[in-house]
Amino acid sequence: MGKEAEKVRKPRFLCLHGFRTSGEILKKQIHKWPESVVQKLDLVFPDGPYPAQGKSDVEGIFDPPYYEWFQFNKEFTEYTNFDQCLAYIEDFMIKQGPFDGLLGFSQGAILSAGLPGLQANGVALTKVPKIKFLIIIGGAKFKSPSVAEKAYASPIQCPSLHFLGETDFLKPYGLELLESCVDPVVINHPKGHTIPRLDEKGQETTLSFIERIENTLAKTENTDSLLD
């Protein structure tokens, strides 16, 4: 019992892939990170609920099949199948969870960063534990006014780690997202809209963020065991 209690369990993250890619592709992208980082997390990689309804930007780089979480108009202001997407994620979290946090890239990052606010407002994820941590790679805010007003009604409270690419077309929107976060940690990298390899500094920052998660979870679980 004593040894078990001392052992820190791995933080469990639900990983949401980019538009018209897949869980398997995101897994390959994340595994470019050093083993010392990846092995500290329990990562789960589902596919989005909808087969890609058009050409994927990763064709020729990663094998199909490709999926998307929901669809949108050219201005990104109107969404199709969005409620179904939220229900799909919640159902997955009920069956495969509990999860401590969300990791997302691109469309998955926009979803991940918006979900804590939607959850706090009772719009999404009402049947699963509160999202406690975020890792956002190439993220932005929701642009649909009806979704955004609920997602960012209050600042995003949970600690978050953000990757911002120097030449990423979403960088200005990623910076905008930071303004809605109470406790963001930022890793800047020289690449574009991609999951970057971690240089030494990026690795240190990521490991320190994970250590903070471990400490928070250990405290929470110690408190829970005292209450039992």
From TrEMBL:
Coiled coil feature spans: none
Q: Which domain of life is it from?
A: Eukaryota
Q: Pfam families attached here?
A: FSH1
Matches recorded under SUPFAM superfamilies? alpha/beta-Hydrolases
Q: What InterPro entries does this protein map onto?
A: AB_hydrolase_fold, FSH-like_dom
Every copy of the Serine hydrolase domain together lies at 9-201
This chain's protein is named: Serine hydrolase domain-containing protein
